[in-house]
Amino acid sequence: MTTTGEHVALAGELAALVERRVVDPLEILFGDGDPVGPVRERLRIEAEVWAAQLLGPDERTAVRAAARLIAALYPGDGPFDPPDAWWGTAFGRAVARRAGHPGRDAVSFATAGAMLGITRQGVHDLVRRAKLDRHPDGGVTTRSIQERLNRPQERHAARHDHH
């Protein structure tokens, strides 16, 4: 269950991110006046919708929304591989819960820690106690991270304790 605060933080972050990465460059390209005013107005509405989709009960809708936003906001020729700090953002936390790490079956212990909001040592402890699954090729499975984040009784605890 998500809170109103989580929704507000995510919607605000998404609006700011889209404005910075998409709308501001359009304004620079289009020049004088307010050529993107209507886009800014629509963005505020869409950010609320995207936040509701990412945090809502429909997993397929959430994963599709995450994929669309990542594709639009982080285009590139290679796979999406954000820095560990990204997972601490409202958008990063929502993606981790709903989609795991897009395109990766396993991540390093450091990235797992970032996704869970704990230290790398905390991840080692969870793997040792069989609370997270080690991937055969090394690291931690993204599925086990996602499952841990989606356990209602542990999701908030994982953000506050150090393992």
UniProtKB/TrEMBL annotation:
Residues 145-156 have a biased composition (Basic and acidic residues). Residues 129-163 are annotated as: Disordered. It comes from the Bacteria. This is MftR C-terminal domain-containing protein.
